[in-house]
Amino acid sequence: MTVELVRGQNHPLRETRLEITVSAATPVLSGSTAGETLRLEPQDACVHRFPVELDAVPASEERVSVVLALPPGVRFGAVAAPYVAVLGAGSGAELASFTIEGLGDESALVALEFYRRQGAWKVRAVGQGYAGGLPELLRDLGLKQPEPKPEPASPAAQPSAPPASAPPASGQPVAGDAGGWTMEERLYNQVWGMFEDLARTIAGYRSAVGFAESRLDQELDRALADPRTRVGPAAEAARDQAMARHTDLVDQARAALDRDLAQLTAEAEVVEPALPPAYAGWDSPVWHGYAVPAEPSMAVRVGELHLPEQPALRIPMLVRLPLERGLWVDSAQDRRRAQDVAVALATRLLASYPVGGYALQIIDPSGSAAAALAPLAGSGVLREPPATGAAGVTTVLGRLTERVDLVQMALRAGAPDALPPDLDPAEQLLIVNDFPYGFDDRAITQLRYLADEGPSAGVHLLLIADREDAHEYGPVLDPLWRSLLRLTPVPDDHMADPWVGHSWTYEPLLPPHGSQVLPLVLRQVAAARQAYGS
What we know:
Low-confidence stretches: 151-170
Distance between the termini: 66 Å
Strand content: 25-35%
Largest sheet: 11 strands, mixed
Mean pLDDT: 88
């Protein structure tokens, strides 16, 4: 039985030798991705049929997209919605279909996506359009210019079996089954795959339920519009039938959601214990065996994310290192807890770098965070105590601003090695508490400069602030807030994913009550520095 997909919905495939059919009201180009290249059919037409051999996809690649493009000057919103179907090449059965509605100025789109999860292939209805046409689509997907479809190979040249390196099709979740050169990279990619899968799965469920609600409203409106079915037994029967169809659609959507959630939950239960310290929760046993790494971590966990349909399924929120933007712990709801979250984040960042690779500097103008900062100040990981008062603000900001200036001048001159010998090569994290207390106009200008230019020169911000405290500056500080990744000390649904824009609930990371994991890790970092004279 074919499955009619809605945008965001996915469906498992029972066959891997597929035939794609495309039907459109106007001639279109169509094709599929092959590695880093888009392979198009040789000519545009209203109907296309072409094969997709998933068994022939190299083990290093996990996605194949089906793409449509219109001639210049034509937009999908001006023509009837295109229809794409997936058939089993062996059985001829239609496995899934997708009518791509809701388009406007787009002239190119990703219609479907086949992706490999735990050794098995699934199809997802994407429907992502691009107003900039095929060039914009290629840029977004990181693809090269499209290749014409090659001539069919002789039967002898066709692969007779999947590559030997292909993952097992057991369907059992395995930690590190994503692509990558190292286990750390594979786990990073797997966590992002889980994040994307959950986003698409919930989008499909919500879309299916929305479709069921819309169809119910339409059927009830039609029944009420007809005088013959407005009242009496016929009206009751029409309403009952409409409600039954609605219930059936919602039940189907929920069954598909429960199936996907069960798979993702099983995967999370396997992946979480396999995560390295930088990716692991504070309650993970891996921290008890922590040792300072020889190389920087690829990413760091800054929290967890979940959606209301399954709050127990938590996806680690990983941020690449070195940080590409600063962090802002919003202290509006709980100032002391925000300070604790910032200390935990700083500890994670320190623990993710080798000896001498990361340094902390702290500005606490009023000294109000002394208690929260005690684990850092008392462990020996700080090279100097937190700066206080207006003079401390001026000194630290001036020093870091000069560092950024020197590094940028060296880079512009093409001489990155021509830096002063006393310049600390370590990545620098500046923690600022209770911003903008103790800051004058010049200091605020310097902080904005560090937020914008600092990451490229190895200087990163961790701001603990309540935006309302800086309301007197009005829009002057808007660019600063936008440049920082906002985190909260309490659960908050302010995060959005890059695929469907769900509002994810962010959960901050703090050690369990009574845990000594932070002092343990900080002592390890400090001891390693002393041993190496750093």
